[in-house]
TrEMBL record:
Organism of provenance: Faucicola atlantae
Coiled coil segments of this chain: 31-85
Protein name as it appears in the record: Uncharacterized protein
Domain of life of the organism encoding this protein: Bacteria
One Pfam family cited in the UniProt record for this chain: ZapA
Amino acid sequence: MTTSHNADNIKQVTIVINGRNRVVNCASDEVETLERAEKALNSMIQDIRRQTPQIDNEELYMLCALNLSSQAEQLKQVLEREQAASRTVQHMLEVLHKVQPQPAAEVKTGASIESQ
């Protein structure tokens, strides 16, 4: 991957996908994310090619897109479950706070009880 700077913190980044160079405009603070995406996509391409050596590029890219969509959907479902669990915990904490016994006020009287 190579980069060159443009105005407004935008970089032109050259990435290699499936052996072909592509130039992508990328915010400076997103270059590392782009590098990870490049590696993940190339790894996915290699895995599919190992399983299906005769696949053409169009089908290869379609399978990659489907795999990525599936992964995104799975992550979305995990996030939704985590958010629901967080809301449940928050609600439980609120309920516990409402029903938690308050410390009893000490009652002082001048009388005492003596045992006989």
